[in-house]
User: Which sequence fits this backbone?
Protein backbone atom coordinates (compact mmCIF):
# COMPACT_ATOMS: atom_id res chain seq x y z
CA UNK A 1 0.00 0.00 0.00
CA UNK A 2 1.53 3.35 -0.99
CA UNK A 3 2.10 6.11 1.54
CA UNK A 4 1.95 9.71 0.43
CA UNK A 5 1.23 13.23 1.63
CA UNK A 6 -1.66 15.13 0.16
CA UNK A 7 -2.07 18.87 0.53
CA UNK A 8 -5.56 20.37 0.18
CA UNK A 9 -6.31 24.06 0.22
CA UNK A 10 -6.33 26.89 1.09
CA UNK A 11 -9.03 27.01 -1.56
CA UNK A 12 -10.80 23.81 -2.46
CA UNK A 13 -14.42 22.92 -3.14
CA UNK A 14 -14.54 20.22 -0.47
CA UNK A 15 -13.33 22.58 2.25
CA UNK A 16 -15.76 24.71 4.28
CA UNK A 17 -13.70 27.84 3.65
CA UNK A 18 -10.10 28.97 3.24
CA UNK A 19 -8.04 26.47 5.23
CA UNK A 20 -5.11 24.21 4.54
CA UNK A 21 -5.00 20.50 5.29
CA UNK A 22 -1.99 18.22 4.94
CA UNK A 23 -3.05 14.58 4.96
CA UNK A 24 -0.76 11.61 5.41
CA UNK A 25 -2.37 8.79 3.46
CA UNK A 26 -1.86 5.06 3.69
CA UNK A 27 -3.55 3.90 0.53
CA UNK A 28 -6.97 5.51 0.84
CA UNK A 29 -6.93 5.75 4.61
CA UNK A 30 -6.01 9.00 6.37
CA UNK A 31 -3.20 8.25 8.83
CA UNK A 32 -2.64 11.79 10.09
CA UNK A 33 -3.83 15.30 9.37
CA UNK A 34 -2.59 18.81 10.00
CA UNK A 35 -4.93 21.77 9.83
CA UNK A 36 -3.85 25.34 9.22
CA UNK A 37 -6.30 28.23 9.42
CA UNK A 38 -6.00 32.00 9.57
CA UNK A 39 -6.37 32.79 5.88
CA UNK A 40 -9.63 34.63 6.57
CA UNK A 41 -8.39 36.71 9.52
CA UNK A 42 -9.89 40.18 9.10
CA UNK A 43 -8.89 41.79 12.37
CA UNK A 44 -12.57 42.03 13.28
CA UNK A 45 -12.01 42.52 17.01
CA UNK A 46 -9.41 45.24 16.41
CA UNK A 47 -11.81 46.99 14.05
CA UNK A 48 -14.41 47.00 16.82
CA UNK A 49 -11.94 48.81 19.10
CA UNK A 50 -11.20 51.45 16.47
CA UNK A 51 -14.82 52.48 15.97
CA UNK A 52 -17.75 53.62 18.08
CA UNK A 53 -19.95 51.29 20.12
CA UNK A 54 -22.63 51.90 17.55
CA UNK A 55 -20.38 50.72 14.70
CA UNK A 56 -19.11 47.67 16.63
CA UNK A 57 -22.53 46.14 16.11
CA UNK A 58 -22.09 46.31 12.35
CA UNK A 59 -18.72 44.58 12.60
CA UNK A 60 -20.17 41.88 14.85
CA UNK A 61 -22.68 41.28 12.09
CA UNK A 62 -19.85 39.96 9.92
CA UNK A 63 -18.47 37.46 12.41
CA UNK A 64 -20.33 34.63 10.72
CA UNK A 65 -22.09 35.58 7.50
CA UNK A 66 -24.53 32.68 7.84
CA UNK A 67 -25.56 33.53 11.39
CA UNK A 68 -25.24 37.29 11.62
CA UNK A 69 -28.03 37.68 14.15
CA UNK A 70 -26.31 35.47 16.76
CA UNK A 71 -23.22 37.67 17.05
CA UNK A 72 -25.35 40.82 16.98
CA UNK A 73 -27.44 39.52 19.86
CA UNK A 74 -24.58 38.32 22.05
CA UNK A 75 -22.83 41.69 21.71
CA UNK A 76 -26.07 43.55 22.49
CA UNK A 77 -26.61 41.43 25.61
CA UNK A 78 -23.11 42.17 26.89
CA UNK A 79 -23.26 45.91 26.25
CA UNK A 80 -26.78 46.17 27.68
CA UNK A 81 -25.62 44.49 30.88
CA UNK A 82 -22.70 46.90 31.31
CA UNK A 83 -24.79 49.99 30.59
CA UNK A 84 -27.90 48.73 32.39
CA UNK A 85 -30.04 49.25 29.30
CA UNK A 86 -33.49 47.72 29.57
CA UNK A 87 -34.92 45.96 26.53
CA UNK A 88 -38.69 46.09 25.93
CA UNK A 89 -40.43 42.71 25.88
CA UNK A 90 -41.60 43.16 22.32
CA UNK A 91 -38.03 43.78 21.17
CA UNK A 92 -36.87 40.64 22.97
CA UNK A 93 -39.49 38.59 21.16
CA UNK A 94 -38.56 40.06 17.78
CA UNK A 95 -34.90 39.25 18.51
CA UNK A 96 -35.71 35.64 19.34
CA UNK A 97 -37.85 35.26 16.22
CA UNK A 98 -34.84 36.36 14.18
CA UNK A 99 -32.51 34.07 16.11
CA UNK A 100 -34.66 30.99 15.57
CA UNK A 101 -35.22 31.83 11.91
CA UNK A 102 -31.44 32.24 11.66
CA UNK A 103 -30.97 28.81 13.21
CA UNK A 104 -33.30 27.17 10.68
CA UNK A 105 -31.62 29.07 7.84
CA UNK A 106 -28.16 27.98 8.99
CA UNK A 107 -29.25 24.35 9.38
CA UNK A 108 -30.78 24.37 5.90
CA UNK A 109 -27.51 25.68 4.50
CA UNK A 110 -25.79 22.86 6.41
CA UNK A 111 -28.11 20.36 4.73
CA UNK A 112 -27.28 21.78 1.32
CA UNK A 113 -23.56 21.34 2.05
CA UNK A 114 -24.16 17.79 3.26
CA UNK A 115 -26.05 17.03 0.06
CA UNK A 116 -23.24 18.41 -2.06
CA UNK A 117 -20.64 16.44 -0.12
CA UNK A 118 -22.40 13.14 -0.85
CA UNK A 119 -22.80 14.13 -4.48
CA UNK A 120 -26.53 14.73 -4.47
CA UNK A 121 -26.95 17.94 -6.43
CA UNK A 122 -30.73 17.63 -6.78
CA UNK A 123 -31.27 17.78 -3.04
CA UNK A 124 -29.25 20.98 -2.81
CA UNK A 125 -31.91 22.75 -4.85
CA UNK A 126 -34.79 21.36 -2.78
CA UNK A 127 -33.20 22.60 0.44
CA UNK A 128 -32.09 25.98 -0.87
CA UNK A 129 -35.59 26.54 -2.24
CA UNK A 130 -36.92 26.43 1.33
CA UNK A 131 -34.06 28.48 2.73
CA UNK A 132 -35.02 31.23 0.30
CA UNK A 133 -38.34 31.53 2.13
CA UNK A 134 -36.48 32.30 5.36
CA UNK A 135 -34.25 34.83 3.61
CA UNK A 136 -37.41 36.44 2.21
CA UNK A 137 -38.66 36.82 5.78
CA UNK A 138 -35.39 38.48 6.79
CA UNK A 139 -35.75 40.85 3.87
CA UNK A 140 -39.33 41.65 4.76
CA UNK A 141 -38.43 42.57 8.32
CA UNK A 142 -34.93 44.01 8.05
CA UNK A 143 -34.44 44.90 4.40
CA UNK A 144 -31.42 42.60 4.20
CA UNK A 145 -31.15 38.91 3.47
CA UNK A 146 -27.80 37.92 5.01
CA UNK A 147 -26.08 40.65 7.05
CA UNK A 148 -29.17 41.79 8.87
CA UNK A 149 -27.81 44.69 10.93
CA UNK A 150 -31.16 44.92 12.68
CA UNK A 151 -30.43 44.67 16.40
CA UNK A 152 -29.66 47.77 18.43
CA UNK A 153 -28.58 48.30 22.02
CA UNK A 154 -31.89 48.45 23.85
CA UNK A 155 -34.04 46.85 21.18
CA UNK A 156 -34.28 46.44 17.45
CA UNK A 157 -34.19 48.84 14.52
CA UNK A 158 -37.88 48.59 13.61
CA UNK A 159 -41.18 46.97 14.46
CA UNK A 160 -42.49 43.92 12.65
CA UNK A 161 -43.87 44.81 9.25
CA UNK A 162 -47.40 44.11 8.05
CA UNK A 163 -47.95 40.45 7.34
CA UNK A 164 -44.66 39.34 8.87
CA UNK A 165 -46.21 37.29 11.68
CA UNK A 166 -48.56 35.50 9.28
CA UNK A 167 -45.69 34.71 6.95
CA UNK A 168 -43.58 33.36 9.79
CA UNK A 169 -46.40 30.95 10.60
CA UNK A 170 -46.71 30.02 6.91
CA UNK A 171 -43.00 29.25 6.73
CA UNK A 172 -43.22 27.22 9.96
CA UNK A 173 -46.01 25.14 8.40
CA UNK A 174 -44.05 24.76 5.20
CA UNK A 175 -40.80 23.63 6.86
CA UNK A 176 -42.74 21.25 9.12
CA UNK A 177 -44.38 19.80 6.01
CA UNK A 178 -41.04 19.54 4.25
CA UNK A 179 -39.56 17.50 7.08
CA UNK A 180 -41.14 14.38 5.58
CA UNK A 181 -39.52 15.21 2.26
CA UNK A 182 -36.14 15.76 3.92
CA UNK A 183 -36.50 12.44 5.74
CA UNK A 184 -37.35 10.66 2.49
CA UNK A 185 -34.51 12.12 0.48
CA UNK A 186 -31.95 12.18 3.30
CA UNK A 187 -32.59 10.37 6.55
CA UNK A 188 -33.92 7.14 5.08
CA UNK A 189 -32.13 7.28 1.76
CA UNK A 190 -30.04 4.12 1.31
CA UNK A 191 -27.09 5.91 -0.30
CA UNK A 192 -27.05 8.66 2.32
CA UNK A 193 -27.15 6.06 5.10
CA UNK A 194 -24.26 4.15 3.53
CA UNK A 195 -22.20 7.32 3.36
CA UNK A 196 -22.91 8.52 6.88
CA UNK A 197 -23.69 5.70 9.31
CA UNK A 198 -20.75 4.86 11.53
CA UNK A 199 -18.49 7.43 9.85
CA UNK A 200 -16.20 9.56 12.06
CA UNK A 201 -17.98 9.23 15.41
CA UNK A 202 -17.12 12.05 17.79
CA UNK A 203 -16.35 10.55 21.20
CA UNK A 204 -17.38 12.23 24.44
CA UNK A 205 -13.69 12.26 25.51
CA UNK A 206 -12.73 14.24 22.40
CA UNK A 207 -15.66 16.60 22.94
CA UNK A 208 -14.45 17.29 26.48
CA UNK A 209 -10.83 17.70 25.43
CA UNK A 210 -11.65 20.10 22.61
CA UNK A 211 -14.52 21.91 24.33
CA UNK A 212 -16.95 21.19 21.49
CA UNK A 213 -20.47 22.50 22.01
CA UNK A 214 -23.69 22.76 20.05
CA UNK A 215 -25.21 20.20 17.69
CA UNK A 216 -21.87 18.41 17.20
CA UNK A 217 -21.67 17.68 20.94
CA UNK A 218 -25.37 16.92 21.29
CA UNK A 219 -25.14 14.38 18.46
CA UNK A 220 -22.75 12.43 20.69
CA UNK A 221 -25.14 12.55 23.64
CA UNK A 222 -23.75 15.63 25.43
CA UNK A 223 -27.03 17.42 26.00
CA UNK A 224 -25.80 20.92 26.75
CA UNK A 225 -27.67 23.87 25.32
CA UNK A 226 -27.14 27.45 26.50
CA UNK A 227 -30.80 28.21 25.75
CA UNK A 228 -31.90 26.03 28.66
CA UNK A 229 -31.48 28.19 31.72
CA UNK A 230 -31.23 31.40 29.72
CA UNK A 231 -33.73 34.03 30.91
CA UNK A 232 -34.58 34.79 27.27
CA UNK A 233 -35.99 31.31 26.73
CA UNK A 234 -37.50 30.90 30.19
CA UNK A 235 -41.13 31.07 29.08
CA UNK A 236 -40.65 28.80 26.07
CA UNK A 237 -41.07 25.05 25.93
CA UNK A 238 -38.74 23.03 23.75
CA UNK A 239 -36.65 19.88 23.81
CA UNK A 240 -32.94 19.35 23.27
CA UNK A 241 -32.52 16.63 20.66
CA UNK A 242 -29.48 14.40 20.95
CA UNK A 243 -27.93 11.57 18.95
CA UNK A 244 -29.22 8.10 19.69
CA UNK A 245 -27.99 5.93 16.84
CA UNK A 246 -31.34 4.47 15.86
CA UNK A 247 -31.93 1.59 13.45
CA UNK A 248 -32.74 2.71 9.96
CA UNK A 249 -34.70 0.88 7.36
CA UNK A 250 -33.96 1.99 3.87
CA UNK A 251 -35.92 1.34 0.71
CA UNK A 252 -33.88 -1.12 -1.33
CA UNK A 253 -33.68 -1.19 -5.12
CA UNK A 254 -36.52 -3.75 -5.33
CA UNK A 255 -38.77 -1.63 -3.14
CA UNK A 256 -38.15 -3.85 -0.13
CA UNK A 257 -37.34 -2.49 3.29
CA UNK A 258 -33.87 -3.56 4.24
CA UNK A 259 -32.18 -2.87 7.56
CA UNK A 260 -28.98 -1.00 6.94
CA UNK A 261 -25.94 -1.41 9.13
CA UNK A 262 -26.43 0.32 12.46
CA UNK A 263 -24.36 3.41 13.04
CA UNK A 264 -22.86 4.56 16.31
CA UNK A 265 -23.67 7.49 18.55
CA UNK A 266 -22.10 10.72 17.35
CA UNK A 267 -21.42 9.66 13.77
CA UNK A 268 -22.02 11.82 10.71
CA UNK A 269 -25.64 10.66 10.46
CA UNK A 270 -26.34 11.64 14.07
CA UNK A 271 -24.85 15.08 13.46
CA UNK A 272 -27.19 15.47 10.51
CA UNK A 273 -30.23 14.14 12.33
CA UNK A 274 -29.74 16.35 15.39
CA UNK A 275 -29.82 19.45 13.21
CA UNK A 276 -32.94 18.22 11.46
CA UNK A 277 -34.64 17.75 14.81
CA UNK A 278 -33.42 21.11 16.05
CA UNK A 279 -35.21 22.71 13.14
CA UNK A 280 -38.44 21.11 14.38
CA UNK A 281 -37.80 22.53 17.84
CA UNK A 282 -37.06 25.96 16.38
CA UNK A 283 -40.40 25.85 14.59
CA UNK A 284 -42.15 25.10 17.88
CA UNK A 285 -40.29 28.00 19.54
CA UNK A 286 -41.26 30.33 16.68
CA UNK A 287 -44.92 29.39 17.00
CA UNK A 288 -44.85 30.12 20.73
CA UNK A 289 -43.03 33.42 20.22
CA UNK A 290 -45.46 34.58 17.57
CA UNK A 291 -48.48 33.55 19.65
CA UNK A 292 -47.18 35.40 22.72
CA UNK A 293 -45.75 38.46 20.92
CA UNK A 294 -46.25 41.28 23.46
CA UNK A 295 -47.53 44.69 22.50
CA UNK A 296 -45.47 47.80 23.12
CA UNK A 297 -42.40 49.54 21.84
CA UNK A 298 -39.57 47.83 19.95
CA UNK A 299 -36.77 50.05 21.28
CA UNK A 300 -35.89 51.53 24.64
CA UNK A 301 -36.99 55.10 24.04
CA UNK A 302 -35.07 56.59 26.98
CA UNK A 303 -31.72 56.27 25.19
CA UNK A 304 -30.43 57.15 21.78
CA UNK A 305 -27.07 55.59 21.02
CA UNK A 306 -25.22 57.39 18.28
CA UNK A 307 -21.50 57.41 17.46
CA UNK A 308 -20.62 59.61 20.44
CA UNK A 309 -22.54 57.67 23.06
CA UNK A 310 -20.22 56.47 25.84
CA UNK A 311 -20.85 53.17 27.60
CA UNK A 312 -20.01 53.36 31.35
CA UNK A 313 -16.90 51.52 32.60
CA UNK A 314 -17.42 47.83 33.26
CA UNK A 315 -17.24 44.45 31.70
CA UNK A 316 -19.49 41.56 30.85
CA UNK A 317 -19.30 38.07 29.42
CA UNK A 318 -22.38 36.75 27.67
CA UNK A 319 -23.01 33.48 25.92
CA UNK A 320 -25.76 32.19 23.67
CA UNK A 321 -26.50 29.14 21.58
CA UNK A 322 -25.78 29.89 17.96
CA UNK A 323 -26.58 27.41 15.18
CA UNK A 324 -23.06 25.98 15.48
CA UNK A 325 -22.69 25.92 19.25
CA UNK A 326 -22.01 28.20 22.17
CA UNK A 327 -21.00 31.70 21.14
CA UNK A 328 -19.38 33.82 23.86
CA UNK A 329 -18.63 37.53 23.93
CA UNK A 330 -16.38 39.32 26.42
CA UNK A 331 -16.85 43.08 26.37
CA UNK A 332 -14.77 45.60 28.31
CA UNK A 333 -15.65 49.28 28.45
CA UNK A 334 -13.37 51.95 29.89
CA UNK A 335 -16.06 54.61 29.77
CA UNK A 336 -15.31 56.00 26.34
CA UNK A 337 -17.38 56.16 23.21
CA UNK A 338 -15.54 53.21 21.67
CA UNK A 339 -15.02 49.70 23.05
CA UNK A 340 -12.02 48.84 25.23
CA UNK A 341 -12.19 45.25 24.05
CA UNK A 342 -14.67 43.00 22.30
CA UNK A 343 -13.70 39.36 22.08
CA UNK A 344 -15.73 36.51 20.60
CA UNK A 345 -15.36 32.89 21.57
CA UNK A 346 -16.67 30.88 18.64
CA UNK A 347 -17.78 27.23 18.45
CA UNK A 348 -15.94 26.37 15.23
CA UNK A 349 -12.57 26.85 16.96
CA UNK A 350 -13.11 23.69 19.05
CA UNK A 351 -14.30 21.61 16.10
CA UNK A 352 -11.20 22.60 14.13
CA UNK A 353 -9.00 21.61 17.07
CA UNK A 354 -10.60 18.15 17.13
CA UNK A 355 -10.49 17.66 13.37
CA UNK A 356 -7.06 15.92 13.11
CA UNK A 357 -8.11 13.28 15.65
CA UNK A 358 -11.56 12.89 14.14
CA UNK A 359 -10.45 12.17 10.58
CA UNK A 360 -7.68 9.75 11.55
CA UNK A 361 -8.58 6.32 10.12
CA UNK A 362 -11.36 7.43 7.77
CA UNK A 363 -11.27 6.91 4.02
CA UNK A 364 -10.26 9.85 1.86
CA UNK A 365 -13.64 9.92 0.05
CA UNK A 366 -15.37 10.45 3.41
CA UNK A 367 -13.37 13.59 4.21
CA UNK A 368 -15.76 16.07 2.49
CA UNK A 369 -18.71 14.40 4.24
CA UNK A 370 -17.03 14.64 7.65
CA UNK A 371 -16.06 18.28 7.07
CA UNK A 372 -19.62 19.14 6.01
CA UNK A 373 -21.09 17.28 8.99
CA UNK A 374 -19.12 19.44 11.46
CA UNK A 375 -20.72 22.60 10.03
CA UNK A 376 -17.52 24.62 10.25
CA UNK A 377 -17.48 28.35 9.65
CA UNK A 378 -13.97 29.50 8.88
CA UNK A 379 -15.16 33.12 8.94
CA UNK A 380 -16.04 32.92 12.62
CA UNK A 381 -12.98 30.85 13.54
CA UNK A 382 -10.51 33.28 11.93
CA UNK A 383 -12.40 36.49 12.64
CA UNK B 1 -21.81 36.26 44.62
CA UNK B 2 -22.47 32.90 46.23
CA UNK B 3 -20.94 33.23 49.73
CA UNK B 4 -20.62 29.45 50.17
CA UNK B 5 -18.61 29.25 46.98
CA UNK B 6 -16.38 32.16 48.00
CA UNK B 7 -15.73 30.51 51.40
CA UNK B 8 -14.83 27.25 49.69
CA UNK B 9 -12.49 29.03 47.28
CA UNK B 10 -10.78 30.89 50.11
CA UNK B 11 -10.32 27.62 51.97
CA UNK B 12 -8.82 25.53 49.18
CA UNK B 13 -6.78 28.37 47.64
CA UNK B 14 -5.41 29.98 50.81
CA UNK B 15 -2.24 31.91 50.02
CA UNK B 16 -2.57 31.38 46.28
CA UNK B 17 -4.96 34.16 45.30
CA UNK B 18 -4.61 37.92 45.58
CA UNK B 19 -8.31 38.71 45.91
CA UNK B 20 -11.78 37.55 44.93
CA UNK B 21 -14.06 40.08 43.29
CA UNK B 22 -17.38 39.86 41.50
CA UNK B 23 -17.08 39.62 37.73
CA UNK B 24 -19.06 42.30 35.92
CA UNK B 25 -22.41 42.89 37.61
CA UNK B 26 -21.68 40.23 40.21
CA UNK B 27 -22.91 37.03 38.60
CA UNK B 28 -19.92 34.86 39.50
CA UNK B 29 -16.54 35.22 41.27
CA UNK B 30 -13.42 36.47 39.62
CA UNK B 31 -10.13 35.24 41.15
CA UNK B 32 -7.11 37.52 40.75
CA UNK B 33 -3.86 35.50 40.81
CA UNK B 34 -0.13 35.91 40.52
CA UNK B 35 1.17 34.46 37.25
CA UNK B 36 3.30 31.97 39.16
CA UNK B 37 0.21 30.52 40.89
CA UNK B 38 -1.94 30.05 37.79
CA UNK B 39 -1.07 26.43 37.13
CA UNK B 40 -1.36 25.24 40.72
CA UNK B 41 -4.68 27.06 41.21
CA UNK B 42 -6.04 25.53 38.00
CA UNK B 43 -5.03 22.06 39.17
CA UNK B 44 -6.65 22.55 42.58
CA UNK B 45 -9.90 23.78 41.00
CA UNK B 46 -10.04 20.80 38.67
CA UNK B 47 -9.28 18.24 41.36
CA UNK B 48 -11.49 19.67 44.11
CA UNK B 49 -14.44 17.24 44.54
CA UNK B 50 -16.91 20.02 45.37
CA UNK B 51 -16.00 22.22 42.42
CA UNK B 52 -14.73 19.91 39.63
CA UNK B 53 -13.91 22.73 37.24
CA UNK B 54 -13.34 20.57 34.18
CA UNK B 55 -14.05 22.87 31.23
CA UNK B 56 -12.63 26.08 29.87
CA UNK B 57 -15.16 28.15 27.99
CA UNK B 58 -13.04 31.06 26.87
CA UNK B 59 -9.66 32.73 27.30
CA UNK B 60 -9.69 36.42 26.70
CA UNK B 61 -6.86 38.94 26.79
CA UNK B 62 -7.30 42.66 27.24
CA UNK B 63 -4.83 45.45 27.90
CA UNK B 64 -5.89 47.38 30.99
CA UNK B 65 -4.10 49.67 33.44
CA UNK B 66 -2.69 46.59 35.22
CA UNK B 67 -1.07 45.36 31.98
CA UNK B 68 -2.20 42.53 29.73
CA UNK B 69 -4.93 40.77 31.69
CA UNK B 70 -5.67 37.14 30.85
CA UNK B 71 -9.17 36.00 31.84
CA UNK B 72 -9.84 32.26 31.86
CA UNK B 73 -13.60 31.64 31.88
CA UNK B 74 -13.98 28.17 33.37
CA UNK B 75 -16.88 26.06 34.59
CA UNK B 76 -17.83 22.63 35.80
CA UNK B 77 -20.02 20.40 33.67
CA UNK B 78 -20.92 18.51 36.87
CA UNK B 79 -21.52 21.19 39.51
CA UNK B 80 -22.27 24.07 37.06
CA UNK B 81 -19.97 26.38 39.04
CA UNK B 82 -18.56 29.21 36.93
CA UNK B 83 -15.39 31.19 37.70
CA UNK B 84 -13.06 33.66 36.04
CA UNK B 85 -9.32 33.31 36.71
CA UNK B 86 -7.52 36.58 36.07
CA UNK B 87 -3.84 37.41 35.90
CA UNK B 88 -2.13 40.62 34.84
CA UNK B 89 1.25 40.72 33.10
CA UNK B 90 3.10 43.97 32.55
CA UNK B 91 4.94 44.16 29.23
CA UNK B 92 8.52 45.52 29.48
CA UNK B 93 8.26 47.29 26.15
CA UNK B 94 5.92 47.57 23.20
CA UNK B 95 7.64 44.80 21.27
CA UNK B 96 8.76 42.50 24.09
CA UNK B 97 7.00 39.22 24.65
CA UNK B 98 5.17 38.73 27.93
CA UNK B 99 5.90 35.43 29.67
CA UNK B 100 2.88 33.52 31.01
CA UNK B 101 2.25 29.93 32.09
CA UNK B 102 0.24 27.69 29.80
CA UNK B 103 -2.77 25.82 31.20
CA UNK B 104 -2.90 23.23 28.40
CA UNK B 105 -2.00 20.47 30.89
CA UNK B 106 -5.14 21.24 32.90
CA UNK B 107 -7.62 22.29 30.21
CA UNK B 108 -6.48 21.07 26.79
CA UNK B 109 -9.04 23.20 24.96
CA UNK B 110 -7.12 26.35 25.92
CA UNK B 111 -4.48 25.60 23.24
CA UNK B 112 -6.12 27.46 20.34
CA UNK B 113 -6.87 30.49 22.52
CA UNK B 114 -3.25 30.64 23.68
CA UNK B 115 -1.97 30.39 20.11
CA UNK B 116 -4.11 33.32 19.03
CA UNK B 117 -3.34 35.51 22.05
CA UNK B 118 0.37 34.71 21.67
CA UNK B 119 0.35 36.05 18.15
CA UNK B 120 -1.91 39.07 18.58
CA UNK B 121 -0.86 40.23 22.08
CA UNK B 122 2.73 38.96 22.17
CA UNK B 123 2.39 36.47 25.00
CA UNK B 124 4.81 33.53 25.21
CA UNK B 125 2.96 30.73 26.98
CA UNK B 126 5.49 28.49 28.75
CA UNK B 127 8.23 30.33 26.85
CA UNK B 128 6.95 29.28 23.43
CA UNK B 129 7.54 31.90 20.76
CA UNK B 130 4.20 32.52 19.00
CA UNK B 131 3.55 30.94 15.62
CA UNK B 132 2.33 33.41 13.04
CA UNK B 133 -0.82 32.18 11.31
CA UNK B 134 -3.09 35.20 11.32
CA UNK B 135 -0.99 38.28 10.67
CA UNK B 136 0.50 39.45 7.39
CA UNK B 137 4.31 39.62 7.30
CA UNK B 138 4.60 43.39 7.72
CA UNK B 139 2.94 43.43 11.17
CA UNK B 140 4.33 40.21 12.63
CA UNK B 141 5.94 40.85 15.99
CA UNK B 142 4.18 44.22 16.44
CA UNK B 143 1.26 42.68 18.40
CA UNK B 144 -1.67 44.63 16.94
CA UNK B 145 -4.12 43.91 19.77
CA UNK B 146 -2.00 45.89 22.25
CA UNK B 147 -3.12 49.46 22.87
CA UNK B 148 0.34 50.74 21.96
CA UNK B 149 -0.09 49.50 18.39
CA UNK B 150 -0.89 52.36 16.05
CA UNK B 151 -3.20 51.27 13.31
CA UNK B 152 -2.40 52.75 9.92
CA UNK B 153 -4.40 52.23 6.83
CA UNK B 154 -2.23 50.77 4.08
CA UNK B 155 -1.58 53.11 1.20
CA UNK B 156 -4.11 52.73 -1.54
CA UNK B 157 -2.75 51.14 -4.67
CA UNK B 158 -4.16 52.17 -7.99
CA UNK B 159 -3.89 50.12 -11.10
CA UNK B 160 -3.95 51.62 -14.53
Assistant:
Amino acid sequence: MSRKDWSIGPLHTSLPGPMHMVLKLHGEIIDACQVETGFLHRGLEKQCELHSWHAALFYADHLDPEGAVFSELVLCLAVEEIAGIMVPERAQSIRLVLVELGRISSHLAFMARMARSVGSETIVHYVLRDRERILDLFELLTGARVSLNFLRYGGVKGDVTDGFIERVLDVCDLIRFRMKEYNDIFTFNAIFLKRTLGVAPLSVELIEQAGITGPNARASGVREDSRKGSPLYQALEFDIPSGKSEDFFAQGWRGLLARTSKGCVGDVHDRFLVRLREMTQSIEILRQLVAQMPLGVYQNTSIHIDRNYPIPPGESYQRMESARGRLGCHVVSDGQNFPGRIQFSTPTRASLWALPQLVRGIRIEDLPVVLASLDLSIAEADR
Amino acid sequence: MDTKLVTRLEKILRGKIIRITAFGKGEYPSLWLEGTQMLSVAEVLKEDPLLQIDRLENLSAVEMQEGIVLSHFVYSSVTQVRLVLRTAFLPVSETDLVQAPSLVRVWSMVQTFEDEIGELFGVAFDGQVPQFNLLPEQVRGLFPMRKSFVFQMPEAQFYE
